[in-house]
Design goal:
By secondary structure, the protein is α+β, with helices and mostly antiparallel strands. It folds into four domains: 134 residues, Histidine-containing Protein, Chain: A; 76 residues, no CATH class; 79 residues, SH3 type barrels (Roll); 91 residues, Alpha-Beta Plaits (2-Layer Sandwich). Helices cover 54% and strands 16% of the residues. It has 15 helices and twelve strands. A five-stranded antiparallel β-sheet has the order 8-7-6-5-9, sandwiched between helices. Helix 12 crosses helix 13. The longest helix has 27 residues. The radius of gyration is 55 Å and the shape is elongated. It starts with a helix and ends in a 14-residue tail after the last helix. About 6% of the residues have low confidence.
Length: 477
């Protein structure tokens, strides 16, 4: 509606000068009505003084109308010519009236309808565009543009097929070179004795060469924009996978670092964050221990790498320590000398550094004395030697008649029992002394290295051969 109003206003602007001229020249109009001939009007116009405006005639009005019709015809021709350049706008018809273009017909899609209106509006002299184009309901008209696009893309694909085959062959060649180079890393001195790290390096080499071939192939076929999209997508995907599998990646990298640094070896007795056992193996995700009770213990590599690790086996010399309570009335220097001499006589105790003892504290009923000695774990078992040292020191102090008191409690009885026979008490004391002497002179206790877990660990390692990262030598921390 607005377009039609604009057209009417334009027509009125064109006819307004003519109407004003007719209103201001009644004499000329009356003369024409009375039969005044055209030569008279022409002579009067020629004889009129200069500077006076010529009076418009009907011929001028007619010329103005014809000029407007010519402009409309020119606009219609230009609009039709521009619409004809678009195959999808072949069904659009054009009518022009006073600079207003009216479009009719059918098009396959809404985008073609908008295209017809924009094409008509760009023609010079167009005042307004009345777009009455409707969408075609014919299935053939709707499918024809899509089929044309498919045909055009298929023809382009056929034309670029040799280049695509060359790009594909280039990717295959780079992939083959990557595999061949990965298998021969030892020739380039890039390989590693660590099977885990060696596999990682081989995978990196293969993927790097494959990515280089893929980028060159995409650049060859002119898909440089796709290269940026692939790299951007790979970066985003890497970040997403990193967050999703953060624990797996952390354990993976920790396993690599542990296999390189080697803070422990198979069979080492270690303690990690309060978890104690002997090392069985190290794989890509966990460190496997066997507890002293014979149970399997799997610790994540990240925890092992970040936690405080205590290795009892790395240094074969290990100090044992135990405490005994000496009576408050006893000679502490003599008790210390007796305990140290008893440990020096033990073959399981290392002579260097020598055994030692020191008073720790004074309690309510006894004085706590600590005894120290060193053992070589390659020759004797630590726990067995400690147990035997406690026994020997205790017997030596008791044999000297010194008191090793227990905690004293006062118990008051209303009816105390009668005292026993003195002879009987003396017999019991002699029996205890004889038993103590037999213990001191008895067979030496077994302090050999405990190999019970070693056989079990050997069987476990045999089952995990090929996946254990500790089966090859590496630098130690």
């Amino acid at each position: 509606m607005n377009r039609r109003q604009d057209a009417v206003r334009c027509c009125c602007r064109r006819l307004l000068p003519v109407l004003l001229a007719l209103a201001l020249a009644p004499t000329s109009l009356l003369a024409r009505q009375a039969g005044t001939t055209a030569p008279t009007a022409v002579a009067e116009a020629r004889d009129a003084p200069r500077g006076t405006a010529a009076t418009p005639t009907s011929e001028m009005v007619t010329q103005e109308i014809r000029r407007g019709e010519a402009d409309d015809a020119r606009i219609a021709a230009q609009v039709a010519a521009r619409l004809a350049r678009q195959e999808s706008l072949g069904g659009v018809s054009t009518q022009v009236n006073a600079g207003t273009v009216t479009l009719t017909g059918t098009v396959p899609a809404e985008v073609h309808r908008e295209l017809a209106g924009s094409v008509a509006a760009k023609v010079p002299g167009v005042v307004a565009v009345d777009n009455d184009v409707s969408l075609s309901t014919s299935l053939r008209d709707r499918l024809q543009p899509a089929l044309e696009q498919v045909r055009e893309k298929f023809m382009r694909l056929l034309a670029s097929l040799p280049l695509l085959l060359l790009a594909f062959a280039l990717v295959v060649v780079f992939a083959w070179i990557g595999r061949a180079l990965a298998r021969r890393l030892h020739l380039l001195r890039w390989g590693s004795r660590n099977p885990y790290l060696d596999s990682l390096v081989r995978q990196v080499v293969r993927l790097a060469l494959l990515l280089i071939g893929l980028l060159i192939a995409l650049d060859l076929i002119g898909a440089t924009a796709l290269v940026g999209a692939v790299l951007g997508s790979a970066g985003v995907l890497g970040i997403m996978l990193g967050f999703a599998f953060r624990d797996l990646a952390e354990n993976y990298l920790a396993g690599v670092m542990l296999s390189l640094r080697r803070p422990f070896e198979p069979g080492d007795h270690i303690v990690v964050d309060g978890n104690e056992g002997k090392v069985i193996s190290l794989n890509s995700r966990a460190t496997v221990l066997m507890t002293l009770d014979g149970n399997h213990l799997r610790l994540p590599n990240a925890m092992v790498f970040k936690s405080v690790l205590l290795n009892y086996t790395r240094n074969p010399m290990r100090r044992l320590q135990f405490s005994l309570g000496i009576g408050t009335g006893e000679d502490l220097s003599a008790a210390r000398r007796l305990g140290v001499d008893a440990m020096c006589r033990m073959t399981a105790i290392a002579p260097e550094p020598p055994p030692n003892a020191a008073v720790q504290s004074v309690g309510d009923s006894s004085v706590q004395m600590d005894f120290f000695a060193w053992v070589d774990q390659r020759e004797v078992d630590f726990l067995k030697t400690r147990s035997e040292a406690i026994r020997q020191v205790k017997l030596a102090i008791e044999a000297a008649g010194m008191d090793l008191p227990e905690p004293i409690y006062r118990v008051q009885l209303s009816n105390p029992p009668a005292r026993g026979d003195a002879g009987h008490d003396e017999a019991q004391a002699q029996e205890k002394a004889r038993t103590r002497q037999q213990s001191q002179e008895g067979e030496t206790a077994d302090v050999s290295v405990d190999r019970n877990l070693d056989a079990q660990i050997a069987r476990e390692r045999a089952e995990q051969e090929g996946t254990d990262l500790l089966q090859h030598p590496a630098p130690k921390e």
